[in-house]
Amino acid sequence: MIDLEEARKQILARIAPIGSEHVRLEDALGRILSQSVPTRDPIPPFDNTAMDGFVLKYRDTSSASPDHPVTLPVVATIEAGMAPTIPLEDHCAMKIFTGAVIPPGGDSIIPFERCLRYDERTIVIQQPVAQGAHIRRLGEDVEAQGSVLAPGSRITPAAIGLLASVGAAQVQVNRRPRVAIHSSGNELVSIASELQPGQIRNSNLYSLQARVKRWGAIPIARPILRDDLDLIRSGLRETLELKPDAIVTTGGISAGDLDHIRDVAREMGDDVQIRKVSMKPGKPLVDGLIGGVPFFGLPGNPAACLVSFEIFVRPALARMEGRSDGILPQRCGVLKAAKEVPPSDRLRLLRGRATPAADGGPDVIEIPSGQGSHLLGGFAAANCLVIAPASTEVLRPGAQVHYWSLTDEEA
Ligand code: AMP
Ligand code: MG
Hints:
The chain is an alpha/beta fold. Helices cover 18% and strands 29% of the residues. α1 packs across α6 (302-321).
């Protein structure tokens, strides 16, 4: 048996970034920037006012006090979008609105509400105005001829705004992996089928497609592979023609006589490892390269296949796309009720639900019954994998537990 971390390390060692593409800015949310983006204009592109009020020269207000207010004539109005060219003379003020250009000679703003009085013709000021007050400077956010955002940055809504402000209508981003998904098994039928004796519906295809999509990668649904060496070979060859970035199969990797995925992967692939990972669920795992494409043979049991995806496929997809969030974040919580953990020589990953505590304390963890690797009922509402080391037999209420969070906050 191999330790989970060690297996993951070996898998990730084979994974390389898959390159980049151009996308429209409106399609770039959540993507990873390949290059920082050059800027033509500084942002803000000109000195402008942060407040509605009056622009003036601060020196003209230096003697102002409640006993000796200063009165200045209002000689013009500047609205946002205008390009004022007439300079502000000494001992004068101009009315100005937020975002409007500071006229030549103006150096400070007094907001309307800070004036003692004002009307269309004069303002009365009772305290000195600080030099540069309420002026937003040219280039304060983005320098001219510079660049914004480092390569590898994740594009957030605010980053989209920043990129829009520098006129980046298209951006170069890392490609999202295209993931081909095959289920395998003679018992599988399409989910629309009425079940005949011995049959089950192909649910793994749907859970994995959803997982890949939620992650922000592109699933390619492939036909069910029947438990036949030749059909598996030809099915995988057809999939390779689609040039996927990864191939994921479920089922057919254990010790059964019909578990042929394992054998075909070894025959067609390079560096194919048939593993027994020290984790429950998810002990069997086959990984390697088939036709140069990273291949993941996941277990067929529905909960095991999703857990193995989280532990091994997700970090691989992250590396392909240059993302830093491939490994599930580990957190701490407190168990709500006792949980018996059947003895095992493997690390148990229990599907649980972490809820923020009302008092701001550690998260409260609930672990539903139905932890079998074939059971999805308890998994459906789970948002974490609670880690129970191999020796654990009972998790007591109030015990501190570590868990891996399954919520993709950024996706
Ligand atoms: P296997 O690894 O092929 O022995 O499959 C293990 C268990 O998972 C068996 O009970 C299968 O019926 C079940 N299983 C395999 N593939 C799927 C699938 N695509 N959807 C739902 N259950 C599956
Ligand atoms: Mg099978």
